[in-house]
Structure formats: C-alpha cells, structure tokens
Design brief:
With 360 residues, this protein is of the alpha+beta class. Helix content is 59%, strand content 13%.
Length: 360
C-alpha cells in the first residue's frame, strides 16, 4: 500500500465512531479495574495510560503491515513481521518514556510507593526484577504486532471488497451503455427507412450523418465521463438527422449557458432525453412541436432538462429502453446524488436529470 493510501487509512481508523467507542469502552474497563483492585487515589497519568496506549495501537500498529511501497494492500508475513517488530518497538519505547516522565514518581510528602507493574492495561504482572516500564514496553510490542496484523488484514479485505464493488459498478454501467448505443442506431435506421422512398437525396445525406453518429458513439463508449460539450455535439448530430425526417415539425431551442459545456458527466445522459421527447411527444403529433434544452444551477445541484410540446405525457405509458437505461446508470453513478423526473407542466413535457457533485 502506498503512503497516501496508508495516511487515508489511518485517518479513517482514528475517526471511526465505532473504533473510538470501543476504545473508550475498553479503556474505561481497565481504569475501573485499576481503581477497584489497585491502591487508592490513582494518579491522573495512570488513568490516562490505557486510553493513550489504545489510541496509539489503533493509529500505529497496522502501519508496518500496510507498508509495501506498491499497490499490494498488505505486506507478506515475513516482511510484515520484521517491519512490525522494529516499528512497534520504536514507537512503544518512545511512548513509554514519555508516560514515565509525565508524572512524579510518588506523591509529594510521601515515601516512594512499591513498584507496581503497568503491563498492557489490565495485563498480567511482569516477573519480579523487571521494571514496570520494561514490562509495559514488552507487553505492548507483542500486542501491537498481533493487533496490527489483525487490523491490517481487516482493512485489506475491506479494500478488496471496495475494489470489487467499483469494478462491478463499472461493468454494469458499461453493459448498460453498450445496450443503449445500438438502440440509438436502430431508431436512426427506422427514420432512414421512412426517407428512402419519400426523399432519396435526403436519405443519402442521412446515411452519411448516420456514419458520423456511429463514429461519435464509438468514441463516447470508450469514455467513463465526458464534458457536456461533447454530449451536445452528439445530440446536435442526432437532431440534424431527425430534422431531415420531420422538417419544420421539429423546432429546437437551446437555453445553454457558457459554463455548461465544461460540466462533466457519464456519456449518453442527454441523448436519451432528446430521443424520448421526439419519439413520444413531437413525432406522433401532426403539427410537431418544440424541443427545448436547458442546463441550470439550483443551489449546489445541476439540472439538465429537455422539455417538449406536442403530444402530452401519458401517465400510464411504459418507460422505454432509453429512459430505463438512464435511470439505471444514474443509480450506478456513486460520485453524485442524482434523480430523474418526467412530468407534465402545462403544455410542456419535461424530462430532467438533477445531480450534485457532478464534476468528478
């Protein structure tokens, strides 16, 4: 595991409410045993020792097991043990020295108290002849090696699970995207078939546009995220083909601020909205309708909307492949909190995607 990942792992451990709660519980139990079984009136430093040591173990003990210098989440057993022994010995001795110097050897006005072992809080008494500080150090080094291995193994397993979850989401998202790309081409071919007999020159031009559309879809499929400028270019090419088929029945308006082109989002979010509006709202209507695209900020959220006149929304209509696909991919977009809505507002049918943290 690399240094930046080790640092983030350490911060997660020491800021976890579950870990801190367990630390307070175990440290409190050791303090209770000390007050109940030990000499009366323990010093504040003595009561703080369990909490300090437990926090130090939580923060430092897994580090030598996680240090690999590469992408591996955990060192091997031999290398990890040597690193853990040397690293834990260093920080434990330093911490014990600090604790030893933190308070007086005995309360003022009294003789020195009998030696009292302070092995790992609540631990066994060290053999006679050992100083309390030495016993405390040896017990904590041994504990740090074991505790560090257990915690490092736990975090390595969690890291593998997170990686597998990310890969699973990416695979599912790519499968949904691959499902949508031929769907776009099928609809374009259906429009082309209408022109072959009615307007052969327009059909010939539409074939050339279809080749451009397929080429752009291929590049779109290779990207995980694209700027809205590229998405708009794809939609404009698609709309040009639809305009050849519908003529003046299709009227288009863009309410598009300059900053919108730099917004980044997964590919093929705007095109399904346009396709749905034309297929279900404008194309079935004899007089056609207007198609309006907009991108706006609403507080911290961004709203991408496509509104259309023409045939009103049928509340009982079944959702097509494009919108169902968009909903599924929006649910997989873990970097943002997003929602899709489709509603009727007066004479306008409005399909909107709303999300936060949309620029990954």
């Amino acid at each position: 595991m690399r240094q930046e990942l080790i640092t983030s792992s350490l911060l997660r451990r020491v800021s976890s409410r579950a870990n801190l709660g367990l630390l307070l519980l175990v440290g409190g139990m050791f303090c209770l045993f000390r007050v109940t079984l030990g000499p009366p009136h323990p010093r504040v430093v003595e009561l703080a020792v369990p909490f300090v040591l437990l926090l130090a173990h939580l923060a430092f003990a897994p580090l030598p097991w996680q240090w690999t210098g590469g992408d591996a989440p955990m060192a091997g057993l031999g290398r990890g043990f040597i690193q853990a022994l040397l690293f834990n010995l260093a920080w434990v001795l330093l911490l014990i020295a600090i604790l030893h110097l933190a308070g007086p050897e005995h309360p003022p006005g009294q003789g020195p108290p009998p030696p009292e072992p302070m092995g790992f809080p609540g631990g066994p008494r060290p053999p006679r002849g050992w100083t309390p500080s030495l016993g405390l150090a040896l017990v904590n080094v041994a504990f740090a090696i074991i505790f560090g291995w257990v915690f490092a193994e736990k975090e390595a397993m969690e890291s593998r699970e997170r990686s597998m979850a990310v890969l699973l989401r990416q695979s599912r998202g790519r499968a949904l995207q691959n499902q949508l790309e031929p769907h776009v081409l099928y609809n374009a071919l259906n429009g082309l078939s209408e022109l072959v007999h009615e307007d052969p020159p327009a059909a010939e031009e539409m074939i050339a546009r279809l080749a451009d559309l397929y080429r752009m879809l291929t590049h779109h499929g290779e990207a995980e995220f694209v700027p809205l400028a590229r998405e708009r270019m794809l939609v404009e090419l698609y709309l040009h083909m639809e305009r050849m088929r519908l003529g003046d029945r299709l009227r288009i308006r863009w309410d598009w601020p300059d900053w919108a082109d730099a917004v980044v989002l997964p590919p093929l979010f705007l095109q399904p909205l346009a396709e749905n509006a034309i297929k279900h709202g404008i194309s079935p209507c004899e007089g056609g309708g207007e198609l309006r695209f907009s991108c706006a900020r609403d507080g911290e959220a961004l709203v991408l909307a496509v509104a259309n006149t023409g045939r009103p929304l049928d509340p009982g209509a079944r959702e097509g492949i494009g919108l169902g696909n968009l909903r599924a991919r929006l649910d997989l977009w873990m970097a943002a909190s997003g929602a899709f809505t489709l509603a009727q507002h007066g004479t306008w049918t409005v399909a909107a995607v709303r999300w936060t943290a949309g620029n990954p």
